[in-house]
Amino acid sequence: QKGELQETIKAAGHLVIFYPVYHYELNFIEHYCGRAKLYTHAHCEYSFLALVPTVPEALAQVSDTLIFKYY
């Protein structure tokens, strides 16, 4: 039997995919965030003021093609 959350999401016309809770290799968001962290480490001056504009840049630099490779 499906849970209420899954039924509600499917009724709205969306696909529901549940990942194993502790297996990071199967969760593409972990790879996405990891790539953004690499960019941040390479381009940040290690102060909060420098980090604020760097994080959006890091997230934006991860290409859709790369994200789909992880998925």
Account of the 3D structure:
- The protein has four helices and no strands.
- With 71 residues, it is mainly alpha-helical.
- It has a domain at 22-70.
- The chain is elongated, with a radius of gyration of 17 Å.
- The protein starts with a helix and ends with a helix.
Topology:
Layout: H1 4-11, H2 28-43, H3 48-61, H4 64-70
Helix pairs in contact: 2-3
How many distinct beta strands? 0
Give start-end ranges of low-pLDDT stretches.
none
- Beta content: under 5%
Give the CA-based shape.
elongated
What Rg do the Cα atoms give? 17 Å
Q: How many separate helices?
A: 4
Distance between the termini: 27 Å
Q: Mind describing the biggest β-sheet?
A: none
Give a short synopsis of this structure:
The protein has 71 residues and is mainly alpha-helical. It has four helices and no strands.
List keywords for this structure.
single chain; 71 residues; mainly alpha; 63% helix
